[in-house]
Amino acid sequence: MRIRGTLGWLLFAVAAGVPLSAERPYINDKKAPEDRRDLEEIQKHARRSLPAARRATVCLELGGEGGSGSGVVVSEDGLILTAAHVTGGVGRDLDVRLADGRKVKAVSLGLDSETDAAMARIVDEGSYEFIRLDREEGARLGDWVFALGHSGGFDEARGAVFRLGRLVRISEATLQSDCDLIGGDSGGPLFDLSGQLVGIHSRVGSRLPENMHVPVSEFIRQWDRLLAEEFIGDGPFAERPKEGAAYLGLLTKGREEGGLEVTRVGRESPAEAAGIREGDVILSLDGVALESREQLKELLAGCSPGERVAFEMLREGKTEVLTLRLGDRED
Amino acid sequence: MKTRPSIALLLALLCADLPAAQTLPWGHRTDGPEVHAAFEAVREELQACSAVIRDGRDEIQYATVVSPDGYLLTKASELADAGKLTIIVDREVFDEWELVAEDPIWDLALIRVEASGLSPVRFGELVEPEQGEWVVANGATTRSRRRVQVGVISATSREVFPKGGTVLGVQLEEVEGGPRVIEVTEGSGAERAGLRAGDVLRKVEGGEVHSIGELQSALSRRQAGTSVAVTVERDGHPLELSVELSERGDLFEIEPDRNDAMSGEYSERRSGFPRVIQHDIIGNRHSTGGPLLNLDGDCVGLNIARFNRCESYAIPAAELRGLIDSMIASAGSGR
Fold it and tell me: What angle do CA A95, A96, A98 make, to 5 degrees?
């Protein structure tokens, strides 16, 4: 329901044409600043927009060798926009470092492997600093923009690194700016002078000034599917999990009266993490009543790693529903 | 004349493609000449208060004019391997110069040329520049004319510790009870303090260490050149030594990381400063040493390191003022 709430709000804002607080600074319509007044205009707007933008910019820590990326919070309950090559998949656990240094847990939602758009959601309940997505029109070539990101990882004394530049190239699914990016910035936000989110950092070109961003319009286009935890497309930014490689981590035997009795639970398996114990009885998987081990195996073969499944369990005479995320056999 | 129409057609075809590409002309980009033109007043200040240090035809460093009578500050470590250098202040060329003082903590060198009536940097009100403010630094020059590079203050000013951390200067193995010294590195603080193979490290600054990992974290967030109290166990007895720390990269090989690999020529000495301000001006290891000016033309810092492709450090003006006075004073007393 929280998901619905966010989406509904966004659509409402667009449809009702909620008045935009910020008007377009005149400097964006000049070919180049001509004098000190023009330069101060850029500086004034950027600095005014910076505090809120900075508070909503987060670092995503992937754990292990995964390194880190950045993201931006776009709803009070912690919806994050980031890059697909940062989350790397659907349903992955992430640590989020907020601007004030606090660490909270998040899970990755859907991603678009063709444009590099991705979402994640903070799972710790709370009220988070966020920026509103209320852009009415797309960014224009030459607009002054600023990039934020946790370059090279989170550094509390430094904070998110600010870079100023212009939109130097606009093509269908990519924005290019001359705000220089580096590892750790991926997934971080690109704002216009009014503090509106314009794009999400994606990658750098072979030459220095080529810094690529996913336009916000790509997120809006795929909003529902990203929220619904879909893995979209077969592009270069994330590798689609192989069907059949899903891993549950338990052994069962059939029962005459139906259902499967758990005889063993693998150590550190998804089943163990979900709290399944020896002696539990699994009655159904995603609503399909289970009769035999072979049937369970077949159903799992049709699932992908990272997919969420629901088991109806019988434990000490009571039934309960338990959802868990399947692991990857190859890990 | 016959070829004209076909050339015109070709151009038209090329141009027809452009609107779809939607590309901003080079000159209008943030570091393009059209944008630079708006900074002309600051460029004129920069022309007067900065210097170019050349090794033959190569610009190896910029410098900051800090007194009318010929004192200049620059980045010390970049002068180390230099040959016969020429220094250009404004349009004046100096083949003779003298290194008069160095400060290893800030990596500064004070040099002097025989001159008078130079225009030193102005410090204004010494208000710390804030994130988002425009800053201007030296870019590539011609023999007589400085060019600017422009950017913004990009992070909160702060102390930066050596990248890779600090070390005592020993090779260690993990044994029961703590890290044990296998070998003491030549020229290290550990050698000067008298650490020996076989010593087992027990404490750093009074805090117990049980593993190499714990030792490393006890040594993180410290500056090279400072000393720590280290307790070792030698022949069954505790022994306390004071060990001067070194930057890891000065004693051991460090592999460049991914961000280093995409950062071109960054400064060799690029971390371990008591306080820096950070900006986003693109450069390379040779573009440090000069002043960092704001839109008023006031000096807000001295560029001391290019850390990577999007992070550059400058010594804040507040620190710089004190350093100038003390370095000139120490140079004077040495004569």
Answer: 150
* Residue pair B193/B230 in contact by the 8 Å Cβ criterion: yes
The single-letter DSSP state of residue B39 is: G
B108 touches B323 (CB < 8 A): yes
- Across the interface, whether the CB atoms of B21 and A171 are under 8 A apart is answered yes
Q: CA A144, A146, A149 angle in degrees (round to 5)? A: 165
Contacts of B261 in chain A (CB under 8 A): none
Residue B154, chain A, CB below 8 Å: the answer is: yes
Structure tokens at A212: 């690529």
pLDDT tens track for A69-82: 999 999 999 999 99
Nearest one of A272, A230, A235 to A251, comparing CA atoms: A272
Structural contact between residues B85 and B99, judged by C-beta atoms closer than 8 angstroms: no
Nearest alpha-carbon partner for B46 in B151, B148, B150, B152: B148
When CB atoms are compared, the residue of B153, B155, B295 closest to A39 is B295
Burial classification of residue B103, based on how many CB atoms lie within 10 Å of its CB (0-12 exposed, 13-18 middle, 19 or more buried): middle
SS (H, E, C) B89-121: ECCEEECCCEEEEEECCCCEEEEECCCCCCCCC
A137 φ, ψ (degrees, to nearest 5): -125, 160
DSSP B234: E
Of B29, B262, B310, Cβ closest to residue A163: B310
In chain A, the residue whose alpha carbon lies closest to the alpha carbon of B30 is A165
**Strand order from edge to edge, sheet including B98-103:** B92-94, B85-89, B50-55, B58-65, B71-75, B108-112, B98-103
Task: Per-residue pLDDT tens, chain B, 335 aa: give them.
Answer: 333 434 434 433 444 444 455 899 999 999 999 999 999 999 999 999 999 999 988 899 999 999 999 999 999 999 877 778 999 999 999 999 999 999 999 999 999 999 999 999 999 887 789 999 999 999 888 777 889 999 999 998 999 999 888 999 999 999 887 899 999 999 999 999 999 999 999 999 999 999 999 999 999 899 999 999 999 999 999 999 999 999 988 888 888 888 888 788 888 888 999 999 999 998 888 999 999 999 999 999 999 999 988 899 999 999 999 999 999 998 876 54
Contact B271, B162 (CB under 8 A): yes
Q: Which residue has the higher pLDDT, A130 or B13?
A: A130
Query: What token pair was written down for A85?
Result: 């090559």
Interface test with B, best of A37, A144, A161 (most B CBs within 10 A): A161
* Digit-coded pLDDT (tens) for A137-157: 678 999 999 999 999 999 999
- For residue A59, the cross-strand partners are A70, A97
